[in-house]
Amino acid sequence: MRQSWSVNNLTGFVVDSVQTADADDSPFYHLRFERVFPDDFYIEMLHAMPVPEDYRAMSGKSKMGSSRPDGKPTRAKIDLFPEYIRHLPPDKSAVWDVAGRVLRSKELQMAFVQRLAPGLKRRFGGKFENVTMYPVPILTRDIPGYRIFKHTDSLWKGMTVQFYLPPDNSTPHIGTIFHEVLPSGRKPKKAQMPFSPNSGYAFAVADNTWHSADPVGTEVKTRDSILLTYFVDAGPWRFVRNRGRRAANFALNELRNLRRR
Fold first, then answer.
1. Kind and range of the H or E run holding 13
2. Where would I find the beta strands (DSSP E) of 92-220?
3. How far apart are the C-alpha atoms of 120 and 118, rounded to whole Å?
4. Within 10 Å of residue 247's Cβ, how many Cβ atoms?
5. Strand order in the sheet with 157-164
6. Are residues 211 and 151 in contact, defined by beta-carbon separation less than 8 angstroms?
7. What's this model's pTM, rounded to 2 decimal places?
8. Among 52, 50, 55, 54, which Cα is nearest to 91's?
């Protein structure tokens, strides 16, 4: 990894990407990214992709619709916290450690709050900037058979961000679909985020942020991305819940790694 890309320098670059991202309010307010990370660091991320055995299957509500008829999970993840990536080879863990620190930074969170102000104000009111949030970045891998039905994210979440990590532009059709809500209650497709290198989107979670993903076909080897979720952290119950989930996931991950030895 280039020595010049320190956590501070890389954070500044990604923050600038957020601050200059295009905004669109159809079908709901969201941001679109075209160059999230520096080109050379993006290449480092692709080279540092973990092997399948490094991932853990998604659990709970996150796995809905993400298993094949043969029972094989079609979405797996690695949490980008130090306690998870320490099991990766040193050259890979170095890259994902820096990426994780950037994604969990206060500077990046503040940039998202500023840019997603219209959506956050709609949900939380005029004092939306005072709502504390807890960032959880995960590296996800989807394989053929993965799909996600129309849904809105849980209101435990405050902001949803996804950065796409394909090596080329050969599969733009597997990006996330945004749906509008008609007076009749129908929710047709309104827009689609192209699954392109170093791109992505972000929105403030609300009752109108319907989205989905079509089934991933056999022409796709892997659908890699970073999901950065900002969980609402206000109040003692949410504070304990967010950190308790991290601790529980850590225990499950350690158990899985012990079984691999």
1. helix 7-19
2. 133-142, 148-151, 157-164, 177-179, 189-192, 200-204, 211-213
3. 6
4. 10
5. 22-24, 30-33, 200-204, 157-164, 223-232, 133-142, 75-79, 56-57
6. yes
7. 0.90
8. 50
Strand partners, 211: 151, 178
Amino acid of residue 54: D
CATH topology of domain 7-260: Jelly Rolls (2.60.120)
Q: Directed axis angle between helix 7-19 and helix 106-115, to 10°?
A: 0
**What is the residue-level pLDDT of the chain in tens, covering all 261 positions?**
454 578 999 999 999 999 999 999 999 999 999 999 999 999 999 999 999 999 988 764 444 555 566 667 899 999 999 988 988 999 999 999 999 999 999 999 999 999 999 999 999 999 999 999 999 999 999 999 999 999 999 999 999 999 999 999 999 999 999 999 999 999 999 999 999 999 999 999 999 999 999 999 999 999 999 999 999 998 888 888 887 777 667 666 666 666 665
CB 178 within 8 A of CB 155: no
Please identify which residue in the block is written with the tokens 């309010």: 25
The two tokens of residue 76 are: 């797996």
DSSP state of 51: P
Token representation of residue 100: 């994780």
Residues in the chain: 261
Structure tokens at 51: 């092997």
Q: Which amino acid is located at 156 in the chain?
A: W
Query: Domain spans of the chain?
Result: 7-260
Nearest to 163 by CA among 134, 193, 191: 193
**Residue where the block lists tokens 């010049």:** 4
